[in-house]
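Side project, low priority. Logging it here so it doesn't get lost.
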Amino acid sequence: MKFRTKQVAPLLLAAGFGCAAVGIAYAAESLQDVMKRRNLSQQDLLAASKTYVPTGKRDEFVAFSSGGQSGQVIVYGIPSMRILKYIGVFTPEPWQGYGFDEESKAVLRQGNIDGKEINWGDTHHPAMSETQGKYDGQFLFINDKANPRLAVIDLRDFETKQIVVNPIYKSEHGGAFVTPNTEYVIEAAQYATPLENKKFYPLEEFNEKYRGGVTYWKFDRKAGRIDPKQSFSLELPPYSQDLSDAGKGPSDGWSFTNSFCSERYVGGIEKGRPPYEAGCSAKDTDYLHVINWKKAAELVAAGKAKKINGHDVLMMDTAIKEGILFLVPEPKSPHGVDVTPDGKFITVAGKLDTHVSVYSFEKIQAAIKAGRFESKDPYGIPVINMKDALHTQVQLGLGPLHTQYDAKPCVAYTSLYVDSQVVKWNFCEGKVLDKISVHYNIGHLMTMEGDSVDPKGRYLVALNKLAIDRFVPVGPLHPQNHQLIDISDDKMQLLYDMPLPLGEPHYVVAIEAGKLKPGVRYKVGTNSRTDQPNPGAVRAGEEKTVKKGNKIEVFGTLIRSHITPETIEAEVGDEVTIHLTNLERAQDETHGFTVSTYNVHASVEPGKTVTVKFKADKEGVYPYYCTEFCSALHLEMQGYLLVKPKGWKPTKTAGTAGANYTEADYKTQLKKVADTQAVIDSVVGYITSVNYKDFHDVVNMMDDAVDQLGKIKDAKAKADEAAGKKDWNNAALTAPALAAPAADGAKLYTEKTCNACHGPAGNKALMPDYPKIAGQNAKYIERQMLDIKSGARANGNSAAMKGVMHLVSDDEIKVLADYISKLKP
């Protein structure tokens, strides 16, 4: 082969490929062909190499994006920008059965307002739980701007566990933001309204009767839930409070919430008045709210709050008197307020100002301590002079919005909405370092863990409001465009355009992938929404159907590849409740469940128990099946709901055999044996797939199933005895002919059974360190061998095991087990 490295080497090196890639002629030619055909530059290839994650490898970071009008959360990887999951939060999400099974409905219904179901939301600002100001990967919080609510997502299983409704707001935008140890989740109101529920005051009384506020939701880390009874709000003027951030380090214990429309303007273009946008932009400045939340919590605990709608509210007069609430002028119509990683500065960008303002927490505290205020607002709140609070102001460009921070000291990034740019700048020295254009009209931006005390740098994501011409046209409604930017060097580099077609995302947080520790299975019988045992759970062999009056309750199981029961009978008008437990222990063996035309769906992950409920309101035959493609026999994982007319009677009854046992009775017993054995097989399969040498550490997982199998086998034996020698007896379960006894356990081990596969000449990979493992689990192995031999374990471990067990008797198996129990490693 003739190598053409001379022409190709510079290209590959410039494109970011190592020297090892140079020298394969056909690969180099193929690369050139692709570049020519697709009109790609070397810069394009470099960008591609920085985002490409080869098959089998994983992303460095995981991003959690608000889903905007979808009411959901979008999860994707960085740098690949591959979407990994949508998490149902305020909106039903069919894949996960969210809003279609009873357990998730209960969470969704926590978001009802004034007794009304609200099945959509406008998610805006996700926040990651923190420990000492660092992302800990345990919980995610997300707000609903349209209907003032907050949700808790547990990152152990990426499921929504709780929704709380703000009791005093009618809208909010400034949520969610956490304090450094996630003591509280901060949620600020946006459009001022009367705080009392169902109270009407005309807009002419706006200044007197309308109010804003900021809520501090108490988070119980151990329970993984917000505690509304320990939560409180602070009454604020009817300025439009916007975003917030919690102090950290020297500013811990304080929070900062900006605002717009401090003019308190009420529009009415239909009445000939200027619109809100004009009236709310008349002044040169708005107000930054500076709040001592730790002292506020103490005041509430001391009983100094007022109950409004059953919720503790610290009134403005009390906050002013106690010295916990202050205002600082900020540039006109600001949006973001962002505390620096060291907690010393607060960055505010005014949309209608070309500057970004950096406030010094130290200077703010000095002014408060000295009582140095320039004025009071109309409600008596002390106002600190802007010059007394400023560290620096930097002119960045048109429409500055949000700021995030780099791992490098003093380096920040701010979005410029009008200029459609990201600007890199130094907040310590107050100078611009670099700019890059994005497409188009950027809103938020996000760096890796960039709002924590420990930013990771590396990448930045620009959340652009418009895509315009960036993607293949899909109608008038275009996707949003999240653009990945490399910030590891002095100059920023645009790497990737990612269309997001699920609502309009507003903000994203990203965490190092290694910090996330999601589980892969639940303890059998878990209600995943409460993390408690589900009363509808059953184990294999315990399945049953209970009918009381017009109520039918089914306690069923799912395991590859059948649903138990496979037939459910009801009459028109019956209320049907079906509990399903996934008996699988293998990773990713999720089963789904739906009944034709009854608008129910469940996603049942390994170990989970899920309930679906409906009224059988129409006569007919309705198939049900597993909606997940979970095995080769997927299409056979099915059953029928038979809805009979009222008073329907069968025209033919089944015959009987033995002591009142029918063929169906007998086959039911056989099926219970198979079901229970399937549980054991699933566990063994899981152990084998992970690491067979850990067999002895997890064999206890099988105990319940093995005990249950023993009970069912006794019931089967009675069925056998009662049934006699009926021709419908399952010949496959007849014990095989037995061989003559061998001399002793050692001979049985070495000549007839275990040593063939697990000895020095065998395939020890089947069970490494077999003697030690076998010795520790001899009793289980004895039962396993007897079951394989009798046929009760019809599928066995393998064809070889079946064959071996036919060579020995029951007595020999007991001798062999005794010998195995004495083996040493």
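Brief comment: The chain has a mean pLDDT of 85.
Revisit when time allows.
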